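Sequence, structure tokens passed on for absentees:
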Amino acid sequence: MERRSRRGTLIVSLIVIEAFVTLASPASAQTEIAQAAPVYQFEIPAEKLSQALKDFSAATSQQVVFSEDAIGDGDAPALRGSYTSSQALEVLLKDTGLVVERTSSGVLMVRKRRETGKRSGAPEHSATDSSSLGNIEEVIVTAQKRKENLQEVPISAEVVTSQLMTEQNYNNLEDLAQIVPGVHVDTGHFSNDLFIRGIGSGGQSSTFDQSVPMFEDDIYHGRSRMSDQTFFDLDRIEVLKGPQSTFFGNNAIAGALSIITKKPGDEWEGWARALYGSYGQYAVEGAAGGPISDVFGVRVAATYNGEDGWIKDVTTGQDAPRQRNLGGRITLTFKPTEDLGATLKISGSDNKTDGTTFQLVDCPPPLPFSLVPNFAASPGSGCTVAQSLGVPLGVRNNDNAALAGFGNHLSTFEDVLTIDYHVWDQVFTSVTGFYNYHFISNQNSGGYLPIFLIQVQIPERYNQVSQEFRVSSPTGGRIEYLAGAYFQRDNLNFSLDANAPALNFVASRPGLGFLTPYLPLAFQPIYTQPETVYSTFGSLTVNVTDDLKLNAGLRGSWVEKTFDGLLEYGTSTQNFGGFEPTPAFLGPIWSSITGEGPPGSVHYSRVDHAWMPSTGVEYKITPSAMTYFSYKQGFKAGGYNGVNPTFPNIAFSPEHVDAYEVGIKSKWLHNTLLLDLDAFRSDYNNLQVGVFTINPATNTGVQEIRNAATSRSQGVEFEAQWVATNELRFLANASYIDAYFVSYPTSPQTTLQRFCSADYVLPYCAPFPKPVPLVANLAGQPQSYAPSWSGSVTARYSTDLPGDYTLTAELSPYMTTSYYVQPGNDPYYRVPGYMRLDGRLSLSSSDGHWSADLIGKNLTNRVIFVNPGYIAATKQAPVSLAVQIRYTY
């Protein structure tokens, strides 16, 4: 581990040095390098300019965006021979009055030339003439493994650009999910929570594959720990909603998060930013890259960011969460010919969070729990103990009382090699990936109390190698197709090292005094889970007419898993970890005390497989409006619980989905108004649900995975963009979700149900028969993280100031109705509805090189719960401000 740490540090150091040298190079040197721009071979016939620009994009692998209104119906001359991208565009756009600008994200934007005498950013036309307003930019995505205009892809998707992430200081998925309707990301559990449309894999087991996997540069990241990574130098994030089985694999049964990093471009460019704000927020990061010869390109990027924390631990005197994130990346491109290109990415990161943000919310407990003193004083509630220790109460303050040692530490390393070969009018693509991570988490069952009850250390190690081959046909013909094969081999190793000082009292019982030398009691479940995945997939599109498309897809997946578990009992030598085995004869005694089961080992293996077909139809109503319908089947393999390996319900079965979606994507008023609307319905069978149960022996929580019988997620999603004037723009996203269990007769007991099982107090327990059932029936009850309504609105106003500066003001409210963080309608795990208000003021130079931002989050200082609970809860950060300086060249 020390060797890997040194390697990660060396890589990051080299990247930072390379970025500094590049940024510090004299302008003449950079110009000299930029002149070595790569040369491409073009075979573009005389055709419509819009099609010629698309052919240019395909030939150079560069994103080109333009407005159909700006391009018009003009023709472009033939372009054949060897040219740099700049020379080629000069030929195509000659005498058109159009110019090309490269955005900070490397996208080539074609627009009308501004009138002479007007400086950048000045209005070109009357605000009352909608045909003359600034247009809505096209967004290019790879949601179907091809570069396509988002408005022409039959998928409900949202795209978050690198510019937005930088402007708003969004550094990870948890930050991002706070503003994307229908999406939820939460970290800090046995695994992280990732949900789309109320479907996901909750934080109840480290073995749980994600129903919302991440893909970074085409590499599958199914482990939720990777959502803790910090973002830097990204091109965009594509949030793809609904099953994405054909193109993204069997586990993308609820959706996918596709992350695309920036690559070297044709010209040298770079950017940097520095930020400081409330609660010690800080960020220093940047990137630089471009061609270093006719065939080689390079881009380096690095980040260092974090915060000091906003919750004061009155016990330790430290703040939480204290975060430190470090990341670096180098990307190399090699293009020896026009037909062959390769990209190699090497990246690493180190992310550390210290402290806990849990606070006591109800003390004394609400009725009826406060009626039973033993219940209120139990280690599970800790209320009486908290009051005796003077622990801060409530969430209206920013104080808690915990103990030192809490926190998470994640280190990652990844290599990706992508090769594209153009031959026989086809594109052959190979994507080879390797990544690993090491993760460790320290937690305490009474994390909101300054006493050690049951401490858990969770070390986790994972590595994965994958290979994908695919071939795609040219676009624009009668038939378009894509086919491929995928292989993945991975291995997960983790354990749960628990020690329980709360059980030291057992030595005082008659006849058990001999246990004293072996206290505090510790137990250690250890797991390994190797996995092999084989997939084959393909899609076919028939362009029946210029306006009508029929498409079909099919993916077959075979998933082999092996699970080995071992449970041992022992003694703990420190607060977190430090496990030492005790003599074997004590095993049955420890088992009876803890209720964790007898010591021993288990071995399981399974093979799950399925074919996942999809079909759809697209129809262009107008050149700028299309409607679509799709039907998809999805599948997610079964697995094994990462809890006590001797539990009888350790295995869970595969889940399946039938998903339907209909939508319309359109632009109106001369490309100044975008309106997208879709309706969906997904029926899940054997949905894998993370549940939380109570171990009565220790009164502590047990995390496990179960199969619910059937469930449904349905609703409507809406997106709008409106360019009201050249200075004023509006963006809106809204989501209505109705996600509920159709049948789930064997759910764990609710909080009230558990209480009534032990203390049947009327009238509170009247809804339950006596004796109280050991399970709950959740038929008709809501699923986790599924607010009925959620949405965001952004209003952005820009105005020119004297001295060639532009001032931009942005206000972004995000709203949601209430939702539950556990399956069912348990009121103690309900997040009340809220509105969060963010804002930004930005001052930019007219050339776009310099910008200064004032960023505000949660400006109304709302108390917004993240993890509500019966006794303890966590919340989002209170109001904060940050100042940021950005530079782009």
About this structure: The longest helix spans residues 2-24.
